[in-house]
């Protein structure tokens, strides 16, 4: 089969790979579509923990079950998505030490076929296209846990989501709109992304490229009860300053790196809670899928590339040009 293989830092190639026999309790899925996450870019650039070479990347996929080495033959022919969480463990609060994410170290979805444990498979929501379904798993569960579980969003909350063009951030917006938040503001680096976010249900948008972006938000909304951020870096102290007393900041990433001189005084004086979050448990994944079904949520697909056009797809993500998920079409 054809697979996108990371050979060494910065070196990815589309290669022919031998397929292994399917172990008991596993299924072989013919992938229809797969989606990019920023994780894939970090791994290619060598900026991720415990990178192994060679690796087939890709954490998100939608496909058709072709073979199972088990009694579950009824699954054959079903259109499925794959839960990228592996070995979360029994504690809903935090993943186990054995936790891994599909697509390094285990072979991922940027390939014609993938072999995965049967318990990772879920029916693809029927209202979604293959591309939309492929866009859902990793960013969907991360955003769902950030908003609904760690953030515990309430209908009285004023909510700020930073960097709305990102895959996780956009899911956070659609989940927050569905689950209830009084006012939702977003930031972005591009005016057209703010316009699109407002069309999707955001109430306010400001450009984080404007030096006075935080003042503009303060004027329009006041302060925020809940902030969901995946960037950290220098602007993080502005998020601390924008938090209402007893506010919660849910942090799922650090695209801009660490926070220089964290404003600890404001954090303790205002009784703020800074809550880390990563991906989500199997329970979160099931709850995320239920919310998608109940509210007929559709992932925002930015663009679709063929597997052979992977370099352009990665470049688009690297440059931050996307609004939503970048998807690879793998087979018809
Ligand atoms: N902990 C987890 O489980 C988990 C899961 C998924 C992702 N992540 C991490 O979360 C981050 C985002 O992931 P993703 O896949 O959603 O990435 P993505 O689709 O590539 O989005 C990244 C977004 O960062 C935003 N951004 C860039 N500079 C910013 C700034 N100065 N202020 C605010 N936002 C800024 C941009 O928003 P605009 O386009 O609007 O300018 C960009 O779209 C990455 O660091 C990723 O590794 C963590």
Protein model, in words:
- The chain is α/β, with parallel strands linked by helices.
- It has two domains: 166 residues, Medium-chain alcohol dehydrogenases, catalytic domain (Quinone Oxidoreductase, Chain A, domain 1, Alpha-Beta Complex); 136 residues, Medium-chain alcohol dehydrogenases, catalytic domain (Quinone Oxidoreductase, Chain A, domain 1), CATH 3.90.180.10.
- The chain has ten helices and 18 strands.
- The strands form four sheets. Strands 3, 5, 6, 9, 10, 17 and 18 form a seven-stranded mixed beta sheet that branches.
- Helix 3 crosses helix 9.
- It is globular and about 60 Å long.
- The protein starts with a strand and ends with a strand.
- The relative contact order is 0.16.
- Bound molecules: NADP nicotinamide-adenine-dinucleotide phosphate.
């Amino acid at each position: 089969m054809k697979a996108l293989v990371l050979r060494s830092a910065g070196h990815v190639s589309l290669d022919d790979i031998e397929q292994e026999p399917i172990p008991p309790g596993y299924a072989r899925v013919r992938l229809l579509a797969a989606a990019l996450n920023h994780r894939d870019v970090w791994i290619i650039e060598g900026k991720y923990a415990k990178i192994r070479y060679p690796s087939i990347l890709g954490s998100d996929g939608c496909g058709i079950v072709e073979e199972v080495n088990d009694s579950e033959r009824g699954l054959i022919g079903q259109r499925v998505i794959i839960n990228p969480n592996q070995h979360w463990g029994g504690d809903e609060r935090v993943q186990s030490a054995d936790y891994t994410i599909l697509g390094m170290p285990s072979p991922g979805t940027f390939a014609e076929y993938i072999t995965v444990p049967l318990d990772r498979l879920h029916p693809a929501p029927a209202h979604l296209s293959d591309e939309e379904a492929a866009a859902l798993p990793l960013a969907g569960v991360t955003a769902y846990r950030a908003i609904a579980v760690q953030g515990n969003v309430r209908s009285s909350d004023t909510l700020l989501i930073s960097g709305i063009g990102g895959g996780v951030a956009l899911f956070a917006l659609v989940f927050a709109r569905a689950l209830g938040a009084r006012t939702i503001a977003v930031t972005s680096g591009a005016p057209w992304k703010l316009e699109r976010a407002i069309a999707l249900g955001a109430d306010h948008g400001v450009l984080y490229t404007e030096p006075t972006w935080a003042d503009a938000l303060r004027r329009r909304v006041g302060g925020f009860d809940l902030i969901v951020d995946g960037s950290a870096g220098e602007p993080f102290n502005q998020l601390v300053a924008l938090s209402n007393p007893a506010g919660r900041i849910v942090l799922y990433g650090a695209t801009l790196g660490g926070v220089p001189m964290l404003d600890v005084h404001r954090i303790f004086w205002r009784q703020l809670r800074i809550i880390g979050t990563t991906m989500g448990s199997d329970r979160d994944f099931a709850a995320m899928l239920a919310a998608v079904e109940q509210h007929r949520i559709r992932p925002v697909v930015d663009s679709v590339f063929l597997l052979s056009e992977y370099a352009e797809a990665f470049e688009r993500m690297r440059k931050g040009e996307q609004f939503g998920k970048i998807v690879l079409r793998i087979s018809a």
